[in-house]
Amino acid sequence: MANPPLQPVRGTRDLIGEDFRAHHHVISAARRIMALYGYEEWATPIFESTGVFARSLGETSDVVSKEMYSFEDRGGDSITLRPENTAGICRALVSNGLTQSNLPRKVFYAGPMFRYERPQKGRYRQFHQIGAEVLGAAEPLADAEVIAAGWHILQDLGISDGVVLEINTLGDAESRDAYRAALVAHFTAHQEGLSADSRVRLEKNPMRILDSKDEGDRRIVATAPTIQPFLTEKAAAFFEAVLNHLATFGVPVRKNPRIVRGLDYYSHTAFEFVTDRLGAQGTVMAGGRYDGLVEEMGGPATPCVGWAAGVERLAMLLAATPPAPRPVAVIPVGEAQEAAALGLLQDLRRAGVVAEIAYKGNLKRRMERANKLSARAALILGEDELAQGSVQLRDLDAGSQEIIPLAEAVSRLTA
Hints:
Blueprint: H1 18-36, E1 40-41, E2 47-49, H2 50-57, H3 62-67, E3 69-72, E4 78-81, H4 86-95, E5 105-114, E6 126-135, H5 140-156, E7 163-169, H6 173-189, H7 196-204, H8 215-221, H9 233-249, E8 253-255, E9 266-275, E10 283-290, H10 293-296, E11 304-310, H11 311-317, E12 328-332, H12 338-350, E13 355-356, H13 363-372, E14 377-381, H14 383-388, E15 390-395, E16 400-405, H15 409-414
Parallel strand pairs: 1-5, 7-8, 12-13, 12-14
Antiparallel strand pairs: 2-4, 3-4, 5-6, 6-11, 7-9, 9-10, 10-11, 14-15, 15-16
Helix pairs in contact: 1-5, 1-11, 2-4, 5-9
């Protein structure tokens, strides 16, 4: 009895054909735009010591407690497949001794991440992100510029219509201390209605309750105070400067006081690009300022701001998948012409022309293969053409054909 065909692990998928082209298109556009903004690309390992993420995401977060792929390696060390990459970038800054030189550093990254969560539309257990981090800049202009770069990517991809930037401030340490006390008072008064997870959060990190997806928690959160009344004058001025810079950059903004980040090293700006075109899970890009994370990694206090975006979700918003490049088919008629055909094939490729040759078959079979590849043209080398130093050029769209000098074939197809 034959073995059943193997399938990908639940929550993962193969990127083939149109899926891969859309995926590649998103990353290529982001890479090109971020280069315009002066970002260099970094690549960090896809697995790190578990402590890197426990420090950065917090022990009480759902990602750390429920979703990380962690395992003990053969040396007895606890290793985790990265669930996000901001922590890895900050760890790399510290590990490579870059915290004291040439700051700020503007970093772009792209690659796979891993979370054990329920697969749903646009969400996978192996998924891919693009991200941007400004490391070592405390000014509100850094917040605004990194957000503007993200908006530029959405515009370049043609998916900015229907996407809204929602933004909030988390204030400075003094603001958050006052706000946290107000939240503790509010949630303590409603403690009986909180979920078990949120009752734990109330003891350890009350701001995380604001992120809860539990329906009962959401009703209590709806009446919770916002941070705005607790902002210091300095924190309010920082937020106003970010908003003014965003207006200058031409980025439309909607304030949302419910956007929060629970850990102490987050401060000031928090934002999400959201859309209603992906159902309930509508965030396509999110980020904020995290001035204490590098210090958590063992480095000096280093102000940072950045964002991450899901490649799969961005690809879902594309109006159309970029088409595959249409090749030129090189067709030898007989074995004697094959060597010349191969030389022509490589000349085309060296000139930047996508070119294909069928490995076997007569003229009819090779032309059928050219049509299946959606070739735009065919160069046919027969015995007579080769003897005369010429080649038959067929325009497969127009249905026309002509005999041209072999030496002109490449220039004709690159014009």
